[in-house]
Amino acid sequence: xxxxxFQAARDKQAKAQQRQREKHAAKLADPEFxxxxxxxxxxxxxxxxxxxIEKRNSPEWIAEQRAKAVKRAVSASxxxxxxKPSPVAAKRQTRASASGRGLKGRTPTAAERxxxxxxxxxxxxxxxxxxxxxxxxxxxxxxxxxxxxxxxLQLPLCDHHHQHxxxxxxxxxxxxxxxxxxxxxxxxxxxxxxxxxxxxxLMIKAYKLADLNVDLIYLMxx
Length: 222
Prior knowledge:
It is built from 11 helices and 2 strands, in the order H-H-H-H-H-H-E-E-H-H-H-H-H. By secondary structure, it is mainly alpha-helical.
């Protein structure tokens, strides 16, 4: 009898778990639920950016960062005094080293990282202009990687809109699918803009989709 009761309890638990899974699957399939989740994510991202900006504008944070910079400078100076100089071989300067940072660019600031994270959650902004959604993207810097605020000026683009040309058969069906960085004779900024809109216009649309402050774009491009 106890064995039968135990089996009945297990069957009941299994049915309850199955109902829970079916209920969850139905919720995920509901467009309204997905839209609500997306809205929550955008609201969370917007609040995070606002907190970062508020923090970086506070006198306390600025004073703290200056104190840390002074402390680092003092520590570096003390280490240099203790360290014995060693002979350094002359190094030939290459094009990348002459530019200071090469393709890698400078490290993003905390505020830039917040914007990059928000843009990185978007699908390809160029594909969206044609009613298509490509979730796998990389961020394209529109004004290089080294200038002040460079990491604010980026676009979320799929691989075929960013760097690598799609096969000719696919381009014949979707002529707007060209990379902003020319791949051989295909793509380039002019052709990309002709089919998809200018980089600045696309960036404004991406900022609005991510609930970012569009004024940052105009501020960084002054």
